[in-house]
Design brief:
Strands 1, 2, 3, 4, 5 and 6 form a 6-stranded antiparallel β-sheet that branches. The longest helix has 13 residues, at 62-74. Helix content is 21%, strand content 42%. By secondary structure, the protein is of the alpha+beta class.
C-alpha cells in the first residue's frame, strides 16, 4: 500500500494485478478497515494503527504503482512487475477515521 495525497484528501492505494475475492467483496461493499499491527512488540497492548474508510475499485494503474513501491521497498524496479503485467486494479481507500494505540 502507498499513501497518496489527492485534492479530496489522503488515500491509501493498493495494487492488484488480477481480480480476486477481496476485490470482489469491496466491489459489493466498499466500506473497509485497514489494520497495521506492530509485530515486534507482542503483548497485551500491542501497538496498532486502524484506518477506516471507503474503497472504490479503479481499473488500471497497478503496474505503475507496483513499480514505484518496488523501487522504494526493494531498492530496485528492474524485474517487478513483469513487463507484460496486466493493468489490473487499484483499491483507493478514502481515509475517514484513524485510530489505534502507540
Amino acid at each position: 500500500m502507498a499513501l497518496e495525497s489527492t485534492p479530496d484528501g489522503d488515500e491509501l492505494v493498493a495494487a492488484h494485478l488480477t481480480e480476486y475475492q477481496k476485490t470482489r467483496n469491496i466491489g459489493r461493499d466498499p466500506r473497509v478497515v485497514v489494520t497495521v499491527v506492530d509485530a515486534r512488540k507482542p503483548g497485551q497492548q500491542t501497538p496498532y494503527l486502524a484506518i477506516t474508510g471507503t474503497a472504490p475499485i479503479v481499473e488500471g494503474g497497478a503496474p505503475a504503482l507496483l513499480k514505484k513501491l518496488a523501487k522504494v521497498m526493494l531498492g530496485s524496479d528492474e524485474h517487478f512487475p513483469p513487463p507484460n503485467a496486466p493493468e489490473g486494479l487499484l483499491t483507493r481507500v478514502r481515509i475517514e477515521k484513524v485510530g489505534g494505540i502507540a
